Amino acid sequence: MNTTKKNNTTKIAIIGAGFGGIAMAIRLQQQGITDFIILEKSNDFGGTWRENQYPGAACDVQSHMYSLSYAPKADWSKRYAEAPEIFAYIQQLVKEFNVPAFTRLNTEVKAAHYDEKRCRWALTLNEDEQLEAQYVIFASGPLHVPQIPKISGIEKFKGKVFHSSQWDHSYNLTGKNVTSIGTGGSECYSVHSRNRSTMQTALCNAAHCSLGDST
Predict the structure, then answer these.
(1) 105, 22 in Cβ contact below 8 A?
(2) Is residue 1 part of a domain?
(3) Are 30 and 64 contained in the same domain?
(4) Pairing between β-strand 9-15 and β-strand 36-39 as defined by DSSP bridges
(5) Which residues of the chain have a pLDDT value below 50?
(6) How many Cβ atoms are within 10 Å of 39's Cβ, its own excluded?
(7) Beta-strand pair 177-181/130-138
(8) Do 134 and 49 fall within a single domain?
(9) What average pLDDT is seen over the chain?
(10) 133-170 in b/e burial notation, b at 16+ Cβ within 10 A?
């Protein structure tokens, strides 16, 4: 469902309704600017914190630092907040600052071309719909496309395979032997969480690393 009416022109187009896009929408309103639109390919706000719901997903920045200066949250439950609490905070911001009124959900930007003569952007959306904007703010971030390694023979593996950002919550890992690839923030948090239920967890990484305590 789209939350704002379709229009083929806008002063400012914001691509992405994660933290960055939401923060920009709030700031624009505070500056008295209302001729803008957020274009979000998903059906909800939240970006990274909507997509990543793997066990143990949490912020690696202290919670009080991970909030907007003009909309602070004083009652974080943990020093490093977990994904559901961060997502709830984002939803609170969206409601408080009327962000849906300036947003089109389920709207993917397929192409963006800049016309130097007219000083305008031409955006191609779903079903080849065209949108013209004077300014475009790219707030899609780098984490919305999973980085899945190419492993020879993986198609022959008879077990379950999925990326942390596409976690299959219907699959029970209890008592299973699990191999995790990579030591990014996502994997480090999920490993700590899974170790309580899995029989054995093997962590694979290209270089030496150590995992500390984030509590």
Answers:
(1) no
(2) no
(3) yes
(4) parallel
(5) 1, 195, 199
(6) 26
(7) unpaired
(8) yes
(9) 85
(10) beebbebbeeeeeeeeeeeeeeeeeeeeeeebbebeee
Question: What pLDDT is attached to residue 3?
Answer: 56
180 and 202 in contact (C-beta within 8 Å)?
Answer: yes
pLDDT of 24-33, one tens digit each?
A: 999 999 999 9
H helices, E strands: number in the chain? 4, 8
67-106 core/surface letters (b: 16 or more CB in 10 A; e: else):
bbeeeebeebeeeebbbebbbebbbebbeebebbebbbbe
Q: What does the pLDDT look like over 54-75, one tens digit per residue? A: 888 888 889 999 899 999 999 9
Per the CB < 8 A criterion, the answer to whether 24 and 139 are in contact is yes
Residue tagged 């290209």 (tokens): 206
Q: Please give the Cα distance from 147 to 135 (Å, whole number).
A: 30
The count of domains in the chain is: 2
**For position 1, what pLDDT does the model report?**
45
Contact in structure between 192 and 169 (CB atoms under 8 Å)? no
Sign of CA dihedral 170, 174, 176, 177: positive
- Give CA–CA dist 130/33, Å, rounded: 22
Check residue 9 and give its pLDDT. Answer: 96
The answer to whether the CB of 116 falls within 8 A of the CB of 72 is: no
Question: What confidence tens digit (pLDDT) does each residue in 177-199 have?
Answer: 887 776 655 655 555 555 455 54
Report the alpha-carbon distance of residue 127 to residue 85 in Å, rounded: 35
Residue numbers of the domain that contains 90: 9-138
